[in-house]
Amino acid sequence: MQVANHIRRQIQSGELRDGDTIPSARQISRDWKISLATATKVLASLRSEGLVKAVPGIGTVVTVLNQQYTSPRDRFQAIRRSGRIYPPNEAAQIKECELVSAPDQVADALGLESGSNAIRRHRVTMNTETNTPVSASTSWFDGALAESAPKLLVAERLVQGTPTYIEEQTGRIVVSGRDQQCADVATEQDAEDLRVPVGSPVLRGRNWVYDQEGSVIEYGEYVTVSGRWSTYDYKLADEQGAK
After folding, report:
1. What Å distances lie between residue 157 and 82, 92, 183, 206, CA to CA?
2. Residues with Cβ < 8 Å from 199, sequence gap 6 or more?
3. Full 3-state SS string of 179-223
4. Is the dihedral of CA 76, 78, 83, 85 positive or negative?
5. What is the pTM of this model?
6. In this predicted model, what pLDDT tens digit does every residue of 187-198 receive, in sequence order?
């Protein structure tokens, strides 16, 4: 697990990029002083996750094109892990930034009075190697942030990510979040953003991001093309507590 986690972090951080060769089982065995059988299991585990593949005559190479950050949770964890909000082969294009009257659902999510102003940022995330869209999302913020965090209304990507920018400007720190996802079909807006036919299968989600006081910093809605995996690691009860 330690060896697999080490290589996985190298891939997720961009230290190992798509097409890079990772050590062979024999090399892993020597470097980590583990058995060849255990080293072989390391590679098998990474292959099962789609992070690497065996290429005849070359060895085991990284395959990150389908290992995307599907949900906001993925991106927040990426910021903390690598300081970057998107993987090396993705970049967001901010399509719209505006101050609008918050729709009822957005006002409820942000804890605003009905009809209050809200900041709307709509983006499409592109795979930079294939120049194809992989997801689209709309982030909503309290309109009051227009004064303290004015770049939220500028149609440019925030390199550090919106959570870090808001923290820098206001001191509000992201401490928790909630994601919801469901299978759906592409609307006309989805079809335009993702370049897929209307009615195509998509994964749709929405998320709430909370600060240290329990208030919602950001409410978001997102949609992604089919065939993208999102990985969540978790720990169940320890052996002593398990029955």
Report:
1. 18, 7, 28, 20
2. 185, 186
3. EEEEEEECCHHHHHHHCCCCCCEEEEEEEEEECCCCCEEEEEEEE
4. negative
5. 0.69
6. 999 999 999 999
